[in-house]
């Protein structure tokens, strides 16, 4: 990776950036994106250097019709062999359906909300009911040789209950780890995190779960997404989820806007001298393409500004 003037000498940190836009992003769009467009966009993302893309969900089609073509999307993908295909599985019925096409994906995400109110609003179950189901599903996922990734939503605050105790979140994380999860993602589902708390949270998560990969998933609802990602990085986190074009959000409650843009996150890391293994220009091009498909401008800054240019090629025009 080429050094930039902002790089800290000796800063050789490497992070993984995981793309969730084709699932977390597309499911929140008011319109349904054509299957062929989804396949084309995901294949384009697969050429950017991303090593994992969340591509589909096994949620009931009547609940999230935008993702009802998930199996067709999976069948149409042509991704490099080293790109992991991740799917979201909400419950045991979803897992039954997923295992019928086991050969089409590499990893599965199971999830719960740390907040009782959000969990009930989101999937109409208590946290304990969800965790009991998750443990049973986790055993099946592991037995099938599928990578088991867990996500805890509302890890940094709930719009219904307010503060969510850190210990409650990390206790759930430990339950997931005991059930076989090798990765734990902590979601700022409605954009309530702040950098100071994020720093303390990830330091403690890494301390309590030393054998599990810890992933940060931030939303930009209140404009603090990149600041929170920086705080997590400084606390030792080396895995991040984001969405190209800043697509996404949370349907419960209304007003929860998108994830941090993958291209903005990668741009920040590169300017800091942090290696992602991703071709930023190719990622920006993919984000611009989804903007064309949707027919509207997205909120990603890098789509507009592009990568930072350190060559000085942009010269001022002499008005005289």
Automatic annotation (TrEMBL):
**What InterPro entries does the record point to?**
Aldolase_TIM, HMGL, PYR_CT
> What is the originating organism of this protein?
Brevibacterium aurantiacum
Q: Name one GO biological process term.
A: L-leucine catabolic process
Homology family: Belongs to the HMG-CoA lyase family.
| SUPFAM superfamilies documented for this protein | Aldolase
Per UniProt, the keywords (alphabetical) are: Lyase, Metal-binding
Please identify the protein, giving its name as recorded.
Hydroxymethylglutaryl-CoA lyase
Q: Pfam families under this entry?
A: HMGL-like
NCBIfam families, alphabetized: PRK05692.1 (NF004283)
- All copies of the Pyruvate carboxyltransferase domain together span 15-284
Which stretches of sequence are listed as region Disordered? 1-30
GO MF annotations in UniProt: hydroxymethylglutaryl-CoA lyase activity; metal ion binding
What residue stretch is flagged as signal peptide? none
Q: Is Cytoplasm one of the keywords?
A: no
Q: Which PANTHER family match?
A: HYDROXYMETHYLGLUTARYL-COA LYASE
| Basic and acidic residues bias: start-end ranges | 10-22
């Amino acid at each position: 990776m080429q050094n930039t003037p902002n790089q800290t000498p000796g800063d050789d940190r490497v992070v993984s950036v995981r793309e969730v836009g084709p699932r977390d992003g597309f499911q929140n769009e008011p319109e349904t994106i054509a299957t062929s467009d989804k396949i084309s966009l995901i294949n384009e993302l697969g050429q950017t250097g991303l090593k994992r893309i969340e591509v589909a969900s096994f949620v009931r089609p009547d609940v999230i019709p935008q993702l009802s073509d998930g199996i067709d999307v999976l069948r149409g993908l042509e991704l490099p062999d080293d790109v992991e295909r991740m799917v979201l599985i909400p419950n045991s019925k979803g897992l039954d359906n997923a295992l019928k096409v086991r050969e089409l994906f590499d990893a599965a995400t199971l999830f719960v909300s740390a907040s009782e109110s959000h969990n009930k609003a989101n999937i109409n179950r208590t946290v304990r009911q969800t965790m009991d189901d998750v443990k049973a599903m986790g055993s099946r996922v592991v037995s099938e040789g599928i990578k088991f990734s867990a996500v805890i939503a509302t890890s940094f605050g709930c719009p219904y209950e307010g503060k969510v105790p850190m210990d409650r979140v990390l206790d759930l994380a430990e339950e997931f780890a005991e059930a076989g999860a090798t990765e734990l993602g902590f979601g700022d589902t409605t954009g309530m995190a702040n950098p100071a708390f994020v720093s303390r949270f990830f330091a403690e998560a890494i301390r309590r779960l030393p054998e599990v990969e810890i992933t940060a998933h931030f939303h930009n609802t209140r404009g603090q997404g990149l600041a929170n990602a920086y705080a997590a990085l400084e606390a030792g986190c080396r895995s991040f989820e984001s969405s190209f074009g800043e697509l996404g959000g949370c349907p419960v409650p209304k007003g929860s806007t998108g994830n941090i843009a993958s291209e903005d996150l990668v741009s920040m890391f590169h300017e800091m001298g942090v290696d992602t293994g991703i071709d930023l220009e190719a990622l920006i091009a993919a984000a611009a393409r989804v903007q064309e498909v949707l027919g509207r401008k997205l909120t990603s800054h890098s789509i507009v500004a592009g990568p930072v240019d350190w060559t000085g090629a942009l010269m001022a025009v002499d008005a005289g």
